[in-house]
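User: My collaborator and I are trying to settle a disagreement about how two of our proteins should look. Neither of us wants to argue from intuition anymore, so we agreed to look at predicted structures for both before our next call. Could you fold the first one, then the second, and keep them clearly separated?

Assistant: That sounds like a sensible way to settle it. I'll keep them separate. The first protein:
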Amino acid sequence: MDAQGRGRDEGIDPADQWVLNPDTGDYELRLTPSPGRSSASAGAPEARTPGARRTPTPEAAPPGDRASVPGQRSGRRGSGGGRGDRGDRDDARKPGGRAAPPTTGRRKAKPKKSRKKKALVWTGGVLAFLLVGTGTAGYLVYQHFNGNITALSTDGAGTGGFSKDRAINVLVIGTDKRTGEGNEGYGDAGSVGHADTNILFHVSKDRTNATALSIPRDLITDIPNCPTKLDGETKDIPGTTGDRFNTSLGQSDRTPSCTMRTVTELTGLEVDHFMVADFNAVKSLTTAVGGVEVCLAKDIDDKDSHLKLPKGKHTIEGEEALSFLRTRHSVGFGSDLSRIEIQQQFLSSLMRKLKSNDTLTSPTKMWTLAEAATKALTVDDKISDINQLRKLGMELASVDPKNITFATVPVRDNPDDAATVVLDDAKSEKVFSMMREDVSFTAVEKQEKAAAKAKNDAKLKGEKAAAGDVRVDVYNGGAPAGSAQAALDWLQNEEGVLKSANQANASENVKKTQLVYAPNQADQARRLADMMGLTASALKPTKTDAGEMDPMTLTLGPDFTEAGSPLSAPGKTPEGVQRVEADKTVCAE
């Protein structure tokens, strides 16, 4: 029985009807009337969902198994005239003792919805079915998934939780800890679980696009001091300078909250949540979705990862999927950066699989996936409740795969250690700036965005004062130490802004660099904005004119990195940045 392809063009909500497939024993969706149904049944009431008749208890299996809901009657829903001819189906039992759902009539067709809208509605319906259900059974399902979740504290490192009115940043960490059966051959023996794979998933404020930024494990960076709750007490774990990024987790008892702090220090982006996956998570999640399709441009026989596959497309899951993700010596240049590329290709394919109708319209797969995800992932304490996790998932799932881009932090070889890498400062800052400014890495175009940009750009249009006529006081409002003097030196010596002064630290820090000016200083503001690459949003006009000798106020924020570097985010991805778009199939080479 093919429940996947029915009713897509008839405007029928996929949650309208469930039937039992006698061949598989699973409940599935039937989106067209069964052959041979009488016209009398057209007005019959709809069947109950399997969530009402067969919702599992915490120990139960997914919809379609035999467990019944406490207090729920089985067999007849009732009999009598006026409800359509049900024949013998009310009391009929299928092989294995399952009760067949009563025959139902067709609902009146609903207004036609797009396929994307149907998928979103149906996803919400499945989650509601899994998490809410009816009465006692729904509570048991809720408790069941809640009981699966393992959570750790953010230790104040994050924002305190995502919000619908701003962009979302979720840090996904894959550890190299060899826990679990069959994992002895992967990772480092005796590893405490370092941050081996790191992806910062940034979803735009308007939810139209997302960027998944991979951070190389061997990147040399500074690990900050990390206040960490251990055994009920807060311990201040000291930071280190010039260390591998992967030591931000596991080393010296560091927890994921320390990796969150390290990411914020590195990128300037505040992280909302973290999720941690180990080797078992990869195996269970890929099995839950029925495998993930990958493509190889050549035969691979990697003795280290144990992956052996011929050239072409393959659907892999479990142990084989983990081997694929651990492969590096047989692809690209054989480095960890090459492994990042095939991980991004794999995750792109996984996203497409999760969004497919094959997954969204299968209650068994959705249940299995929810079971695997809640058991396999360790999350932060802000999303340790299944309802909060569901809400976050719905926000992340709203982005179309064609507008999701995987990218890697731009790096270069470390001249002091061939086994590690360092930031490519110019390119990496542009990438971080694009994410901070919520600039898409894909070509997402919207009329309202263009209109807003045009309105802001108007601030920068008009006459510009000569550099020698610009008066400005420079303050440090959260930029690195010494930034105000560095900016002043550059303005005076390189740009000829001699009527400028360093006023040391601002009375309070700012989130981003800003320039406050009076209406009669607009020409000066435009000149300074042009010199420093300030965005229109950084310009803050006052309502009253200033005196002839009054200076403007330039306050440098955390986005100021060095004098002479533009502060505005680039409009497109810098040249040479490695990218993979989630809606495209790429073959590993």
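The second protein, kept apart from the first:
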Amino acid sequence: MSTPPPPVPGAPSWPYCAHGADPAADPVGCRGVHVPGHTACLAHLADADRGAYLVALSPGADIDHRGTPFTEPLLGALLAALRDPATGHPRLGDARFESAAFHGKASFDSATFHCKASFGSAIFHGHAWFGSAIFHGDTWFDSAAFQRGAGFLSAVFHCDTEFGSATFQRGAQFNSATFHGHAWFGLATFQRGVRFRAATFHGDARFDQAVFERWVSLGPLVCAGRVRLSGAVFGGPVTLSLAARRLECRRTRWSSPAEVRLRYATVDFAHAVFEYPLTIAAEADPFVLPDGRTVAEQALAHAPGATVRMASLRGVDAAHLVLADVDLSGCLFTGTVHLDQLRLEGACSFDEVPPRRRRHPARFTQRRTLAEEHHWRAKQPEAVRGWNPAVLGAGHAGPAQLAPVYRALRKAFEDGKNEPGAADFYYGEMEMRRHDRTGTTRAERGLLHGYWLLSGYGLRASRALGWLASAMLVTVVLLMGFGLPEDAPKQEATGTVPPGGGRVTFEIDKADPQNPTGDRFTGKRFEKALSVTLNSVVFRSSGQDLTTAGTYIEMTSRLVEPALLALAVLAVRGRIKR
């Protein structure tokens, strides 16, 4: 047996063919691994030896052709030797094609790989077809280069699949493919279009830091785990139609219009960059394929519901963002830029304050709230049960940070002509200002506390009406006790008749009202006090004779009660205006 060539820089780690090595131009030569029992790769083996090797193969045999250059006829001869007579399709055991080069069409259609299949760093110069192929073991296409079209239509991957750092220079088709393990496409580059229509992922689908240079159509697909796109770059139009448990798009970059339609998913878009309009919408019904078939969602059979939940928009410029029918009850908003330009369509829901509990004095008026307010209130020493504590990684945001968030969302609702929704966020803004001990002065906090106590910042009609009823009751009681005189003063006319006759001049005077001394709380006095009070509410004078104390009581009621009535009217208007 001849001595293998000495190690040279860039040489592979396996025993290699070295055919065509040139010390000056190419010191390594052919990198194909030795065929067992020979010193050449399958491509450079003598015809007789190659024929003997192929004849010795049987369906399900293990093969090792790392670094081997394959022509289309050579690959066809290899797969023909592995063809199972029962199915008419190739059946391979442990298949190793790392760094192999495929010239011409590489067709593995309907092939079955019973063990591991490794195509890491392989180069496909022509079309690569793996349609309906079945991979029973772990599969590697990491750093592979597909220079023409790549097709994995209806392929089935039973274990983990690795396409990390692969390059797809032309179109990539994964329609109807099934991934039973985790699938990695991290750092992959898709230079043309890519499709995953009707694909199913039973584990995670990871596209971290992948680059999509042209249009992308991911889905409709189903993923029982997470779809991870964090750090990915989208250079062309994007359509994502996903039924998945979670979608992570942290620090993604979108350079064209995009539409993301989801079911079941919890979505994290923290620090994503949108240069064009991007729509994130929830789909109420299962996705439908172009041929009219409904996408099967058995992989998500145990999911709690099809509701789409936003987890974070921190660091996002929301000027181009549209959210439709998504649950924002757990969304983190602090740090979002241009939040006032966010468009909310359909039934976008937020969290609410804790419900009133029996035997507990604390009661919170129902309103929309942010998840971060829940987190902040749950940390307070006097917090009642019902405020949701922060999850790991949610960070800390206090009233000073939450007040501008509420203000921006209020403007977004106002621009959308949703005054009742805007009222809730105005209430939240005022609450945060009232509790802010860094940006709000003590005097301002006192005024805000009084405004909250009297009318819930002009948004709680029941509170203002309650105070109005109390003020009226106090006014009636005070008038009956001190404001109404004992008897109505009588007018007296006095004058002098000239002795010789002539004009008589009378002076009409009225006695001062006398403070009551008898029974003050009678039905007649109540009617008079109620008349005075009702006129005061509408800022009118009743004309009723009053004592000095009663005059001041009426003046005070004419100042306070119309203001409380106005606050109640303002609150009602804020709830019904559109």
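Some points you might bring to the call about the second protein. The chain has nine helices and 40 strands. The first helix runs from residue 47 to 56.
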